[in-house]
Design goal:
single chain; 10 helices; 42% helix; globular
């Protein structure tokens, strides 16, 4: 940690690119982003202990800290960790609410509950995180178990990235789902990070 970084933000690796882009674009030099593996969404039992260990190790070096995770399948264990360290979440009750903002996410979810969400990161890593990560490459019969109830795929695009769009189209085709694109940009991330105060050094 450099001397000017007074605030630690622990985040899922799946949103690392967006958070770093916002920090750099807005000169939020007091914020230090530390990410845990995005793959842990497939093994959520690792998330709470991972956050706990990182806070135990790094929190004494900072004046404040925030966590950019929702519950993410931890069954409330992550909340226990946050209470233990007296650390707050960044706004957003659901991971995808970080990308859209909570109000917009609620509207999107209400429109179709059976929606599979993609982000730039998830689109570009779909085969590794979903097909291989969930074992579908080895056990194709799991496809219907995991995805049988989805009605559409919604790609939350943070950047104008032709490669990510093409990957999202391939992902939707592989699941035989219609694809919709909702361009979020980085505004929700900017709003979340802008609420972090600059602490006195």
């Amino acid at each position: 940690m450099s001397a000017d970084k007074t605030t630690l933000v622990i985040a899922c690796g799946a949103i690392a690119h967006e958070l770093v882009a916002v920090v750099e674009a807005n000169n939020l030099d007091h914020i230090d982003i530390q990410c845990l593996p995005a793959e842990w969404h497939n093994t959520p039992d690792k998330i709470a202990p991972g956050v706990d260990n990182l806070l135990t190790e790094r929190l004494p070096d900072y004046q404040s800290a925030y966590v950019a995770y929702a519950d993410c399948g931890t069954g409330g264990h992550l909340d226990t960790v946050l209470e233990k360290h007296q650390v707050q979440r960044l706004p957003g009750a659901h991971c995808y609410a970080f990308f859209t903002g909570q109000e917009t996410f609620d509207e999107l979810a209400e429109d179709e509950l059976g929606t599979f969400y993609l982000t730039d990161y998830l689109a570009l890593n779909f085969d590794r995180l979903i097909f291989c990560g969930l074992g579908i490459d080895r056990y194709p019969e799991l496809m219907s178990t995991y995805f049988g109830h989805y009605k559409k795929m919604l790609y939350l695009a943070q950047f104008d990235n032709p490669d990510a769009l093409s990957a999202a189209q391939e992902a939707a085709a592989s699941l035989k789902l219609p694809l919709e694109v909702h361009r979020t940009g980085l505004k929700p991330f900017e709003s979340a990070l802008a609420g972090i105060p600059v602490r006195a050094q």
